[in-house]
Amino acid sequence: MKAIDKANSKTATSSSTDASPAVQTGGTEQILADILAGVLKVERVDSNSHFFDDLGADSLNMAHFCARIRKHGGLPSVSMKDVYSQPTIARMSKMLLAQIEQAAADQAEASSPAVEQALADILAGVLKVERVDSNSHFFDDLGADSLNMAHFCARIRKHGDLPSVSMKDVYNQPTIARLSKMLLAQIEKAAVDEAEISSPAVEQALADILAGVLKVERVDSNSHFFDDLGADSLNMAHFCARIRKHETLPSVSMKDVYSHSTIASLALTLSQDRASPAPIAPSPKTASEPVMPREPVMSESARNFEFMRCGVLQLLISFTMVYIGAVLVTQAYQYVAGASGLTDMYLRSLIFTTVAFAIICVLPILAKWGLIGRWERQEFRVWSLEYLRFWFVKSLVKTSPLVLFTGTPIYNFYLRALGAKIGRNVVIHTNHMPVCTDLLEIGDRAVIRKDSYFNCYRAHEGLIQTGPVSLGKDTLLGEMTVLDIDTQLGDGAQLGHSSSLYCGQSIPKGEYWVGSPATQRTSVDYRGVPNIDQGNLRIIMYCLLGLLPGLLILPALFGVTIEIIQMLAERPHFSAPGTQAFMFWTFFTDALTISAILFFGSLVTGLLFVGTVPRLLNLALKPGKVYPLYGIHYWLHRVIQKSTNIKFFTYLFGDSSYITNYLQWIGYDLSGVVQTGSNFGMDVKQDNPFLVTIGSGTVIADGLSVITTDYSSSSFCVSRAVIGADSFVGNFVAYPSQSKVGDNCLLANKVQVPLEGEIREGTGLLGSPSFEIPRSVLRDRNFELDDEEDMAKRLRAKNRHNLGTMGIFLFAHWFLSFIMLCLIFGAGDLYLVLGTPAVAVALFFVAIFGVGYYIFVERLSIWFNPLQPLQCSIYDQRFWSHERYWKLMTTSAQLAILDGTPFKGLAWRLLGVKIGKRVFDDGCGMTEKAMVAIGDDCTLNMASIVQPHSQEDGGFKSDKIEIGAGCTLGVGAWVHYGTKLENGAQLAPDAFLMKGQEVAANTRWAENPAREVMT
Fold this sequence. Notes:
- The protein is an alpha/beta fold.
- The protein has 29 helices and 47 strands.
- The protein has a six-stranded mixed β-sheet. It has a six-stranded mixed β-sheet with strand order 32-35-40-43-46-47. Strands 2-4-8-11-14 form a five-stranded parallel β-sheet, with helices on one face.
């Protein structure tokens, strides 16, 4: 690059003007000879002696020689490439003098006035003025705004002779003069770091580091990291971390380790790299990231006051909403209870449920337009009064019953009513509701798959930043995808499964991309099925029929509830005055009986339903046949999908041998299953269970989503998905039916499953876009049991332990329903004395008590077995205790009511997280809480995950996670076990920070797997 050439010129020029005359006239030879003599520890060196053949030097000696020259103030830098091309002192001194002369000729070009003029010309073009004074302040004097300066930065990046400039630089150096000085300093710094390091020297340094990590005496340069040396991914993560701390070596990512899995091949690659971290690949297209002026930094006392004020106001708002609900409930009870006969009761119930449904649906829309108006691009502090309005509207918008109608035009109508620009025939399957809807634009015939995020806002360094998201006509957004703010898909573009777009990225018209961030083109058409012409009448009838069951069933359920309450009102404890009702034993026996009937009756009825009704409905669906949306077949497909994805059942049976029986009951093909006792985790879902085949001997962790359906904007088609035998599938994997993965494969966490190319077998896949890694490592194989008799004995013991865990799980959930019913009974008794306030307090306390109860159960589950870092077989009893903890732990869904409030941090603290002050949590999930430490003022975005454990095949591993003060985890970001993020570190959206990584302070890591990047 010319900029680097200028850097060398500038450095050399400085040397030529400031060095002693000896350097310029011939004393260079003597200086170089003296330096080399010192390195070789000899008295003198002849200028014409060959470095290697005559003097016996090796590559390490010459690397030290180059390093000492770089520290010499009067000489230009020398690289190992120079050493090999000019292998005598005489020849090298001539080369250096030629460089000095050339640098002198180029000095004027690299001067500060030249840089100033270039910057001034660019800014004048952006502001559309004739000229810009170098000392004029960008904002105060020239009247520029953040958008002008963002365009200014973008034009500089396109200028081949200038280093990149960020918006942070603009705010720190707000004049052309100051900015040019900063750039020249960067150019000079780049010149100092330009020298290349030889492959032999790198080999030795890398070998020494790896030997230290593996605790061996030496490492052969040609030995394979995994197959020969027995290293695992955790060892190699520590290896990468130590390299990053080495001053003279370029940074190494886990992807580099897997791509170049010997010291020799890795060193050869690194010898061509620079010491600075690589920027994020700009493809498919990257625009400048919007950065707005920051508000003045508040004092800690002011931040604490704002934090506490926000919590108090959120508590008051929540109780007010509950009180309004209590008024409606009590009035409805009096209205319906006054009915004369069953018909009148049903009609009154119908009127109430219809009116209540309408109010609940309209309220978020009215609140959004009344409190916000139109969402615009903006930035404000969390915990501020502006944030309070944002939180209130977000809470109402996301809890609307219309969110249940994803995949139908009713959901599109709801988004339009909130201000979103939604085109015709758009299909949205994700239930993650966007908040800043005015900033969302979706073109005609777009298809958005489930589990995708496009919130139109993000939390970043203690700020809420809103920005637009635009999807053009005929676009498709795959499953488990994340769109940051200021992202765009052009008409006909597609973003594949398990992919993301970072702030400022866009996919060009008609192109298909995958990756996190999207950097790789693909020929796969994720739409998969053609559009079918259908009239508006079909759509209207489908929407009306979709609302009809609720309007018919809910009034009947409400009427039955009123009848039961009236029957209970005749019991002695209800007729007793005031608190005397709690003295009757019938108060508790009634609650006990009713809760047992409701809980266990629902359990048995639900199991019978999911094993029979979907099986009958599935007879009408034929794999490979294209059906129109919004018809009877689409309705059947949605019923099958919703009824076979009840999380309570997978949580009950998961992480035990009994999960295979349940999955077979709902339709999975698990023929020839090899029972491990942990074949599936507690979180697995699918579009159609009757089209899922899992090969023998395969083990699957949590979060698998099997994709058996292809959609267009007007049609769908189902097809079979097959996961090969003897494989392992990690956490949160979207597995499509078109997968090119065969038998004996390892699919790592958040991997993007390949859909093109040859069938992969006997290998591992990591990352998005995915690349191959070893299927297993020596340490994981050590966990396997070879003795079949011992294996069977341990499996029987594990089954007994898991069965006991399932019993505790059922008891814990039933007991909660019993306590809740007691609270409701108590509210009914006190209603006669205190009126509506008694119902409001009871309803509010029920919500708070539920969170507290889950926290209590989790803490009780580890009372006798505190969580500690662990590495063991899944047939070790310590792992069984860990499985019991997972079954009883508090999930992110159970804490969702606290998202975005100061009380979420309190809940984490009660659960054992070592958490600092003023942490903003918008929906983060954690597993082993007691093994997590989080510093002050961190920002945790929605769907970010902190997971201090891993399970692969028969091995389990866990370790602590440390997140320093002021860190930010992006939407969908994943932090794995044994990692450490120092203060101010950032993890980009959808990034996967692999186990054992150490993230330096104030650095930004992105991609899957994550690596350090330049902003």
